[in-house]
Amino acid sequence: MNNKENFIKKLRSSGLRPTKQRIEICKALYERKKTFHFTIDDLNKILRKKSKEKISLATIYNTVYAFKNKNYLKEISLNTNKTYFDTNVSNHHHFLDENSNRLIDLKNSDVGKVKIKRKIPGKKIKSIEILVRISD
Fold this sequence. Notes:
The chain is an alpha+beta fold. The chain has helices at 3-13, 20-30, 40-50, 57-69; strands at residues 37-38, 74-77, 83-86, 93-97, 102-106, 131-134.
């Protein structure tokens, strides 16, 4: 199966019509050697530079959030005015460079065992993801 077929399948399973614009969004997200972190604004800038298609901000938002809801993207909310998304949906940790507002992946093997002492009745831990803030 080629990338375009994969993108069409991903879009349809997310409840979206596979339009030219949405296929361009998929290319920007998934035709890369490495996973990456982005904001909606970052993705909009990438698409304006690389795509011949005119893609509205609403289409970008709808596609990104539909993918997030299907676990094709991970949302990383920080205590800032920015929400980041990650094409790496596995459980993993991050450095946040506060000078450049850049997220950098940390492998699980880069972090020692984490012990959570508090429990919430009726709830179980789904995952643990650590954000390490760094600066100059």
